[in-house]
Amino acid sequence: MSYTPETLQLLAPDGTRVVSDATEAYLPYVDALTEQQLREFYRTMRVIRRFDIEAGNLQRQGQLALWIPSLGQEAAQVGSGFAARAHDHIFPAYREHAVGHIRGLDVVQIIKMLRGLTHGGWNPAETGNFHLYTLVIGSQSLHATGYAMGLRFDGLVGTGDPETDTAVLVYFGDGATSQGDVNEAFVFAQSYQTPQVFFLQNNHWAISVPVRVQSRTPLFHRPRGFGIPSQQIDGNDVLISYAVTAASLDAARAGEGPQFIEALTYRMGAHTTSDDPTKYRDDDELHYWQERDPIARFETYLRGLGESEAFFTEVAEEAEQFASEARARTLALEPPPAESMFAHVYSEPHPMMDAQRQALADFEASFEGGAA
Asked: pTM higher than 0.90 for the full model?
């Protein structure tokens, strides 16, 4: 299942601009972008792809238990990630490395989590309201909807004040649309008119099950049945990803209720490093999407605008340096102290945790001096 007549696009696969009546309403968002913002789009895509590849290499070399690649999905993430305002809240699934980077997350925190060195990840208050990765498929859609309900109850929607009106952006994949959690989130979001945008990265594969088997109709038709406005975009086009997400977030903040975006993209690598995609997909499909690579497309567009060769060289060098530093920092990671498992279980000190902490200390002390 690929592009449909309703798929919105501003950049063709060959990097040229697409003009159509369907995208006219989104042009002001793109026209307002500065040259520096366009460069930052490209820089972030290149840097995160290089980091993503390096993290996969580290996993193959035994440095972490698992890696979840985002290769091929950079435009969907970078465009939508930059569309959110600083005070908006982001609820990721587990592949949104670029969005986390945009919001200020140190991406080595993702490596630490997948290496088993943290108890969940990071503090969203310290990462630009970028919430925790969620490995339970689709459950983050309910977390996001609950948070968005709270924003409405607190009156932080539809006031007309851009400094306080807040939206929630939640990411999930095509496989998650088959989960009850996502559909329940649609029900509550529409019932309470929550200020949120559901962002579906349709990468065409829920592990080994193709989207054409999961759904006989385009996935962006589903939320319409719940009364939620929806759009389908070319997820490998960073400009349309930015513009449609920005417009949808504006509508959500203005009190127009939940919005839905299906970004058609492709997982060019494995679902995770425990997966072998050659077992279930063919080379022709992969080649089709490689020709629609989001980074190559945007680079062609920038070159057409007159961007210098020096810029692309600089970004390539920065990406290599970023990946090299991530590798060095990964190799230097140390296990956390065992007693850290008792921290943050309760919001305040708890006698049960104190007892368990002491029991662990006593047990470890029993081995001192050659005891059993």
From this structure: yes
Contact assessment for residue 295 and residue 23, using Cβ atoms and an 8 Å cutoff: no
Q: Which helix (H) or strand (E) segment is 237 a member of?
A: none
CA distance 256 to 259: 8
137 token code pair = 């498929």
- Measured CA to CA, the distance from residue 15 to residue 115 in angstroms comes to 38
pLDDT 10s digits, 140-199: 999 999 999 999 999 999 999 999 999 999 999 999 999 999 999 999 999 999 999 999
Q: Which residues share a beta bridge with 263?
A: 201, 233
- By C-alpha distance, which of 97, 77, 220, 197 is closest to 147? 197
Cα separation, 115 vs 333, whole angstroms:
10
What pairs with residue 264 in β-bridges?
202, 234
Q: For residue 121, what is the enclosing H or E element? A: none
Strand positions, DSSP E, the chain: 89-91, 168-173, 196-202, 205-206, 209-210, 230-234, 259-264
